[in-house]
Amino acid sequence: MKKLAFSLTFLVMMSLLLFGGFAVFARTGALAAPKANAVLRWTADPVKLGLNSFEGVEDDPSQSEPGVKHIFAEGDHYRFNMDTKQREAPGDRQRNEVKGMRQNGQILTIGLGETWRFTYWMYIPSTLKGTTSFTHIMQMKRPGQGSAPLMTMDLRRNGNSELIALKAWVSGVDVATTNLVPLRNHWIYTEVTVTAGAAPAGKLHWKLVDGGKTIVDAERDGVDMWLGDRLRPKWGIYRSVNDTADLMNTYLLLKNMNAYQIQ
Questions:
Q1: Shortest CA distance to 168 belongs to which of 127, 130, 196?
Q2: Which one, of 165, 151, 236, lies nearest residue 195 by Cα?
Q3: Which of 53, 67, 58, 118 is nearest to 94 (CA)?
Q4: What is the distance in angstroms between the CA of the first residue and the CA of the last residue of the chain?
Q5: CA angle, 147 as apex, 197 and 63 as ends, to 5°?
Q6: 40-45: long-range pairs with CB below 8 Å, 24+
Q7: How far apart are CA 155 and CA 125, in angstroms?
Q8: 165 contacts 174 by C-beta, under 8 angstroms
Q9: pLDDT string in tens for the chain (263-residue length)
Q10: Whole-prediction pTM value?
Q11: Statement: 35-262 belongs to CATH 3.40.50.720
């Protein structure tokens, strides 16, 4: 009886496994592949490390407001202040950003062919407006003065509508856009996944979650995400001053900032 019970149990288990495999095959045309391994490589720690979590800080680079600190750790988050007086040379823009990642004193590099996922929470107040010129709150760039961004997270204005968008900047295409207004004045979660490669090898994926509801989950492949050397992220406020009607004294808050390398 014991042998019979064991045989029946074994047959049931095998049937379930086979059925499950065939069910997956029927839905996808192949057995489900294992999920990619995401290795945590970087965590920004505002309490213990402050701005030393980053490779560098661009706080009013042209020193248009000498002695004024615009970027700092504040409790469990980072704060980026921006007022209407600030100017960066040649005078048509403003910039308060952090750049790159530093972990255990070492600068982390995003190399050709690598895929990285950046996850964090952001608080966008009603005073941080979308503009018809450029307002970036995240960028992916090759280091160096004057280098073009490969990716930007933008706050835009289109008539009376304000949008938040992720753009493959060099390729000139959006990954996705969504309404900015309902996302303001509370914490929202975002993920940006970047595959570093020249077109058509570059790829971007953007996820945006508000109160447990996924607002954006979109991917764009075949884009240009490589200009040579290496890539590094930037966060903060970088905006044109051309839209004077939409410029206000404002700020941006970021917290729980992590970067994973997808292997």
A1: 196
A2: 151
A3: 58
A4: 49
A5: 140
A6: 40/258, 40/259, 40/260, 41/101, 41/103, 41/108, 41/116, 41/259, 41/260, 41/261, 42/101, 42/102, 42/103, 42/108, 42/258, 42/259, 43/103, 43/257, 43/258, 43/259, 44/78, 44/101, 44/257, 44/258
A7: 12
A8: yes
A9: 434 443 434 433 434 333 333 333 232 233 334 457 999 999 999 999 999 999 999 999 999 999 999 999 999 999 999 999 999 999 999 999 999 999 999 999 999 999 999 999 999 999 999 999 999 999 999 887 767 899 999 999 999 999 999 999 999 999 999 999 999 999 999 999 999 999 999 999 999 999 999 999 999 999 999 998 899 999 999 999 999 889 999 999 999 999 999 99
A10: 0.85
A11: no
CA 98, CA 78: separation in Å to the nearest integer? 10
Place of tokens 């409790």: 75
- Give the sign of the dihedral formed by CA 98, CA 95, CA 130, CA 148: negative
Cα 196–chain centre separation: 14
User: What is the residue whose two structure tokens read 């929202």?
Assistant: 188
Q: Is residue 16 within 8 Å of 8, Cβ to Cβ?
A: no
